[in-house]
Batch of 2 targets.
Target 1
Amino acid sequence: MLSTLKPQPADKILELMALYRDDPRDTKIDLGVGIYKNADGETPVMRAIKAAEKQLWDVETTKKYTALSGDPAFGAAMKTLVLADSVDHARVGAIATPGGTGAIRQAFELAKLVNPDVTIWTSNPTWPNHVSIIKFMGLTNKSYAYFDEANCTVDFDAMMESLKEVKSGDVVLLHGCCHNPTGANLTLEQFDLVADLILEKGAMALVDIAYQGFGDGLEEDAAATRLLAAKLPEMLIASSCSKNFGIYRERTGCLMAISEKAEQTAVTQGTLNFLNRQNYSFPPDHGARLVTMILGDAALKADWMAELEEVRLGMLGLRTQLADELRRLTNSDRFDFIAKHRGMFSRIGATPEEVLKLREDYGIYMVGDSRLNIAGLNAETVPILAAAVAKICK
Ligand code: PMP
């Protein structure tokens, strides 16, 4: 039977990682894969995570199963982190999932259960895995206009125009902050207008929030999600702890589902638990437990927030440095958007040929759509990248 299998399309980013690994040049720069790296190119375990792991070693007496939802304390901590008091927590069901990807997958499963003919709307472009999972599940995907290629900003008018086609029962996937891959984000006023439209259409918002704390700050980055949660009767939120807690491999995420009325929550929560049961039964606990410990301990939380803020400000500093350098070298404001984008990524508007040339001639690795990982840079490599971009990108 297995001989009938056909090779799956290769993941472009993983392919790029392999090319980078095999490149012998010691001047090569990896701006591809979406993980945070410090100035030394390392992705260290965060201090608060290490401290929580030490504590856990002492206090954990069992590795028994938790609950199908994961530890309810994790769900409660995530509701507070992401939603704060924007919505009555009694209206919010939550499950732990294997990473943000698991939360997104379970959100699609829930949407499918509610409406087997659901259409899931994604931004053009979006994180490619969104589209890939939707298609793999046999669901319909439609994309809404998002990125203005010429200016590297959001084309909000075009976005609203395409969202006019949304039907009742559809799901509109929005990036809560730090849009991947573009780095271009909606303003809160624009999110508000999108919420009105979703409401008017009788659709449901699904917010993917994978980079809370990487953009404008922990609270600021959750503001759009909270605005939507306060305004919409129902909503789904897929949150990832991979980036902001630096626990990529622990697979820690949370799906939250907001019901219109608190009386509905027991059934919504039960359905979320059921979906966990069907897909992998009990979700992973280690990362979720560390997150719960950190968020529940004032000292650990303060240290985590301080380190996250260093990470965020480091990336902002690199953005400013790169935009300044490009302004100087091109004598224009063409790349000023890099300083306005937020999060780990910016799509810089280079053609596929230019991206290839940057790789071949300069050993600069970015994804084919010209998405670069800002965290792959440091103060020394910014001028190298800027010089190459100024030369190659017409
Ligand atoms: N959403 C977006 C937009 C992402 O970029 C990512 C990670 N690349 C995820 C979700 C999921 O991340 P993870 O499953 O590693 O938590």
Target 2
Amino acid sequence: MLDVQGLRVEFRTRDGVARAVNGVSYQVHPGETLAVLGESGSGKSVTAQAVMGILDTPPGKVTGGRVLFHGRDLLTLPEDERRRLRGARMAMVFQDALSALNPVMTVGDQLAEMFTVHRGASRRDARARAVELMDRVRIPAARERARDYPHQFSGGMRQRIMIAMAIALEPELLIADEPTTALDVTVQAQVMDLLAELRRDLGTALVLITHDLGVVAEVADRIAVMYAGRIVETAPVHALYERPAHPYTRGLLDSVPRLDRRDGELYAIQGMPPSLTRVPPGCAFHPRCPRAREVCRTEEPPSHPVADGRASACHFWKETLDDLR
Ligand code: SF4
Ligand code: MG
């Protein structure tokens, strides 16, 4: 359904050109959940914005690649066609609902507008469907609350409203960018449960962008791990947890607290992610990698097929895979 091929995005900054997305490829199949995992600044949000066609341009610019949606390249589609696709067939949920919603319009009117504008519904019908949607995302007293403005809702409820907006037209693809990061832990779990449930009921494919491995384990079918503007590993969730094929993934997994580790020692990947204006040559991870050798400093590792649809961009993916700890 979605086939991103060799996507490149650059930003002009005061420090020079930042290669925020540096040849990213991934596929999303109908109904599946792909988690895009990475630290902040790894390029995961920018990739999503380029896919949705909502990149801030300038300073951002797509400099290469293709974004095929059912075989059509979105990057060459006229803006009005792209706008029609957004909302109707692909939609996005952001971290910060307050800035994504219109502050001077009631949430009922905002939801109803999806149906009047995109579906030609009458105002009365659209209002009724807006209330149904609010019900569906479990906003208590939906009929009354439809008359409230975004700032009158809690963070968790606002996030539900944004999810309602996103699913209003039953899109085939939903991209959720850190949808629960701004919420506290219990509310996070509720919102993730809601997303999983809607995805099941509607058959929507979900691209879930997150830095949180815990969230990934619960909802994703597959994971793409990003580092410094590249995807370093893709794998089905269970395979990746059991046997990562990239040292960066290994490091991420080892830095999650585990109940079965009695030593209580928590590993942390040494160093910091690089600035995207100064990505190290060769393998971008080499200054932080415990496995790095000479070749890693000079040769950029290609994406090696591992098995079962897995891939790793590491020269020593085999050794990493066989390192069973
Ligand atoms: Fe580490 Fe080398 Fe693999 Fe990069 S290519 S992750 S530096 S071992
Ligand atoms: Mg982000």
